[in-house]
Sequence to fold (598 residues):
Amino acid sequence: MTEDDFLKDLFSKLPSGDAQITVPNGDDSAAFTPTPGMQTLIACDQLIEGRHYLAETPAEICGAKLLKRNLSDIAAMGGIPRYAVLSCNVNSACSEQWLKDFHHGLLKCGEEFSVHLIGGDLASSPGPNAFSLTITGESAKPIQRCGAEDGDLLFSTGEFGLSFPSEHHLHFTPRVEEGKFLSSYAKAMIDVTDGLLLDSQRLLKASANTLDLTFLTQEIPARNFLAKDASLKESFCDGEDYELIFAVGPKRVKELIERWPFSTKLSKIGEFKKGTGKILDDEHILLNFINKGFDHFQS
Amino acid sequence: MTEDDFLKDLFSKLPSGDAQITVPNGDDSAAFTPTPGMQTLIACDQLIEGRHYLAETPAEICGAKLLKRNLSDIAAMGGIPRYAVLSCNVNSACSEQWLKDFHHGLLKCGEEFSVHLIGGDLASSPGPNAFSLTITGESAKPIQRCGAEDGDLLFSTGEFGLSFPSEHHLHFTPRVEEGKFLSSYAKAMIDVTDGLLLDSQRLLKASANTLDLTFLTQEIPARNFLAKDASLKESFCDGEDYELIFAVGPKRVKELIERWPFSTKLSKIGEFKKGTGKILDDEHILLNFINKGFDHFQS
Fold:
């Protein structure tokens, strides 16, 4: 099978029926008509063998994970995910079947979240297989990382810690529906991929370090795996939770809690106060866990 | 320097002043307001060490080449390039300085073509350094690969062959301005990246194999390097020309030639006739060069 044949075979499996796609996959560029009045969101994320999945991880799960990582970025803006383009950089040991299964997993996940794959590139090189996906979405008013103010509360979806041993990092549900709902409540929002502590710091830095964040450490929902709750350090520092954390004004808290329509856990885990970018625990002591978030230049 | 510091340093160098960017680089997703009445184009392409550049190729040139490869895809739709997001997957031997120089080359090229880098991802793994860039563009009416008809002529920009020995593949100018101009003349268009022969076949296949294409082989402009013109085989089969080929209706040919405002060579190199997807030379003999275009599953 040639590359063109592979892609043709793949394209024929793509769901049709999105009237806004004007040039589908298979041309030099794909094209779509943006929804009037909406802003276009765009983000990209990678999936690399040995880092985000292991050689023995089923290919379908890998494909789905790559898309879900990107869906989490759109969720963190409160956006509606729309289209994806995929780069594959695979070695000669990567079989056609593995790659088909990978695409199958990605397309199935795309169907679930109404995302259409409309473009891509396939190349090969030695070294670990690596994939990069760019996702687009739309929103009338994207929720940024900045926007928290003195007196706001920090809320979270879901649970934190132990993502790798529990395989949550492969089987998570990106909080797309929750993000859409939250777009009318959250003043600032981020998805937690590099650990609750590091991503909270990013939220604080985005407010130009004019705030401190005091965590209600007793309220942080710890993931339970094999009858053991994640420790506070694991909840703060393990990566790949793919949950949302967001600032809510004190006047909206009651309404948010009452109207929350999801089975996903909703927790009030912190408070913002005027400050200089410090993160404190509930005894107002600086949180001093080592930042274990992934860092290319440090690791 | 941490990854966040690197990215912050990078973001501060990004050109500002595009009023349609509503959320710049540095949030979970970037956001922009699409131009009313325009379709959004999207395409992605990769740059891999050892395949698209060598370890000794200057980093700035690598960064520019990646963007130019993508610009060529937008040019092939007759579109206006707008925004880019970049995935970097680099090994531990890749220095901070190299990566800064790479970004510098990409940003400088972006300035030249009015493309803004608005998002990205940085990861590391062993193996060759690999980069993937997604570009967006816009067009009121994108020129697709399909659309050629019986009696149309095939035109080309520029010259073909010897792209690697001449280093054309590093120093080419993507035909963005030519593509925009051609959007009111071309009925079908593609950029030649995998060789004139293979990309012509793609143009023919897009017309559902209802056409044959007869090349005026004497008219194909061969690249001259070190006082030697590319052979016919080199012109047809070498890759990475980054030129446009396109179908023009016979009634528009005179006007196209008279109004062509560029110094870029414009050549009439073939004719479309009713048929079954065959490619012939000017003696109506099937062109039978081995297809040397890159193919993941064959190479």
Q: What stands out?
A: Chain B has two domains: 3-139, 153-280. Chain B has a mean pLDDT of 93. Chain B touches chain A through 75 residues (CB under 8 Å). The longest helix of chain B spans residues 59-75.
